[in-house]
């Protein structure tokens, strides 16, 4: 086995929080007088909170000044955190717990590479925080995915060269970031959306220990 490492995205890969981000953004859109579809939500996946609001406002053709933007960003996060507070271990996506523990047992290092500023809180809620060898989240980066910064910092923290890192992502922005970092990528979700991924899996059920073993063999 070569010295491989994994970098996992959080929302939509480790835990099913993508639906809560969607609900919170949709509530905001409705409050501002327009609707926000599942298809449009794809544009927000993997994207920072600030950039997500800009995309949402473009969709609704709504213009806000800076103070109003700050207010709505705060409101959206408060709403999102209400959903997160009710979350438990059962919302870890299928197969993830098993794969993380397999990597741990086999001393294959892994990091979190997430755009979320709530990442540590969520991992702590799920009792997963201590499992990770490194955490890089929205508080640690200056540029968001598809910029490769989040994954390059992750590789650095793990002490593994970028080309030996395997990124697991559900967002197009994340797959593009992995490619720009020179890393292998596994896209979780619609292969048409994630067409640039090196490997496509429909959902985390397909991210089995067997798949991981073959990949790093
Ligand atoms: C990403 C999500 O992981 O984190 C985005 O895919 C989200 O939808 C982004 O906007 C930022 O998250 P947070 O928790 O900092 O608002
Ligand atoms: Mg994601």
What would a concise description of this structure say?
With 217 residues, the chain is of the alpha/beta class. It contains nine helices and six strands, in the order βαααααβαβαβαββα. The protein is globular.
Describe this structure in words.
The chain is an alpha/beta fold and 217 residues long. The protein folds into 2 domains: 5-15 and 89-216, Rossmann fold; 18-85, Orthogonal Bundle (DNA polymerase, domain 1), CATH 1.10.150. The protein is 44% helix and 11% strand. It is built from 9 helices and 6 strands, in the order E-H-H-H-H-H-E-H-E-H-E-H-E-E-H. The chain has a 6-stranded parallel beta sheet, sandwiched between helices. Helix 1 (18-31) packs across helix 4. The N and C termini lie close together (5 Å). Bound molecules: 6-O-phosphono-beta-D-glucopyranose (BG6) and magnesium ion (MG).
User: How would a textbook summarize the main sheet?
Assistant: 6 strands, parallel
Low-confidence stretches: none
The count of strands amounts to 6
| Biggest sheet strand line-up | 3-2-1-4-5-6
CATH fold naming of the largest domain: Rossmann fold
**How many domain units?**
2
CATH superfamily of the largest domain: HAD superfamily/HAD-like
Radius of gyration, CA atoms, in whole angstroms: 17 Å
Distance between the termini: 5 Å
- Tell me the strand percentage band: 5-15%
Mean pLDDT: 96
Q: Topology as H/E string?
A: EHHHHHEHEHEHEEH
Approximately how much helix is present in the residues? 40-55%
The CATH class of the largest domain is identified as Alpha Beta
């Amino acid at each position: 086995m070569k010295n491989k490492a994994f970098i996992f995205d959080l929302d939509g890969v480790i835990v099913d929080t993508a639906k809560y981000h969607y609900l919170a953004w949709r509530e905001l859109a409705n409050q501002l007088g327009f609707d926000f579809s599942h298809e449009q939500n794809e544009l927000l996946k993997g994207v920072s909170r600030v950039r997500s609001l800009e995309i949402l406002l473009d969709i609704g053709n709504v213009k806000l000044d800076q103070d109003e933007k700050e207010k709505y960003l705060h409101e959206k996060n408060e709403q999102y955190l209400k959903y997160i507070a009710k979350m438990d271990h059962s919302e870890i996506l299928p197969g993830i717990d098993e794969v993380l523990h397999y990597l741990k047992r086999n001393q294959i290092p892994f990091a979190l590479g997430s755009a979320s500023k709530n990442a540590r809180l969520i991992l702590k809620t799920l009792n997963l925080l201590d499992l990770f060898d490194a955490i890089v989240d929205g508080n640690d980066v200056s540029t968001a995915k598809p910029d490769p910064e989040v994954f390059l910092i992750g590789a650095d923290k793990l002490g593994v060269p970028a080309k030996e890192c395997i990124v697991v992502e559900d967002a197009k922005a994340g797959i593009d970031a992995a490619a720009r970092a020179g890393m292998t990528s596994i896209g979780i979700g619609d292969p048409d959306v994630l067409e640039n991924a090196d490997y496509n899996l429909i959902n985390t059920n397909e991210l089995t220990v067997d798949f991981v073993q073959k990949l790093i063999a």
